[in-house]
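## tool: complex_structure
## caller: assistant
## args:
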Amino acid sequence: MVKIKYLIIAIIAVGIGVLAAFTLLQSEERRVKKQFSLLSEWASKDPGENVLTMAHKTQRMGTLFAEKFELKTEIDLMSGSYTPEEISSLAARGRLMFSNLSLKFYDFDTSFPEKGIAKVILTARLKGKSTAGEYVDETHELECILKKTEKRWLFSYVEMVQVLKK
Amino acid sequence: MSVMALYRRIHQFFFPSLTPKFLIRALLVALFAYLFFGHICIPLRIRGYSMEPTYHNGGVNFLWKLCYTFSKPKRYDVVAVRFAGNRVMLLKRVVALEGERVEFRSGRLFVDGKEVEEPYVRYPCNWNLPPRQVEKDCIYVVGDNRGMPIEDHHFGQTSMKRILGMPLW
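## result:
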């Protein structure tokens, strides 16, 4: 009788442990996803957005990135390391070229290869209209690495996945 | 069949009684449709002009995912390459296989130094691309529309892992 009692307690303890680990992992995944939703919100631009809103958004965008952020794209000019301040000024310059802009992320595939490191593979879609009236609609697969610093997940590496190599 | 019986049948068809037998049948049909159209034969809408005139912008087709279960893509096959996530793919034609050398000379395709006939290419083309070897576990894919400048056309070698299947027609 005593044995059964201990067995039940052990099963309950393991169950609670599994549930706690699952919940913790889920919440970390949610936190990572939240960073993408903030990036999407602050990178996007509504038509007629005023200068103050723009300054506020680009300033805050920099806070999502690690002190040393690395970008790897097919365009060599854009690839390289950036500081959060550089990201903010780059974003401000980039947004000026568009009258409206929307950046959305889909198909999240998140994993945690090491403690404090999150690897996310996702689809990014950039849609908008340039100030010259040209429509832009680009979709790419991105591989992103975020590092946890003081309870916050910061972008430290983004690579545009090359699907076709000429 | 009397009018009343016909009316009853039509009524039964559009407003069936929710009997357990009917619910199980509906559930099975829904499950089959989800598996078939979600994982085996996926509906797709073509956007862009890179496969003109074989496939037109705005066209509708189905992606048959079982075609490469027991075989590998062959030259001239039109394949769907996974571009981003599970929803964005590229329709391209296989022109060279693993280990082959591919190049373009004045718009003509050469594989291992021999010119390859391309009856599906209809628009004049003046592409030039130095020879390059297709890497291991990769295939070389190009769109049928060579009427656009080479810089604007998405083509090249891609991993076999990214090949999702082929269009049904």
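## assistant note: The mean pLDDT of chain A is 89. Chain A touches chain B through 13 residues (CB under 8 Å). Handing back to user.
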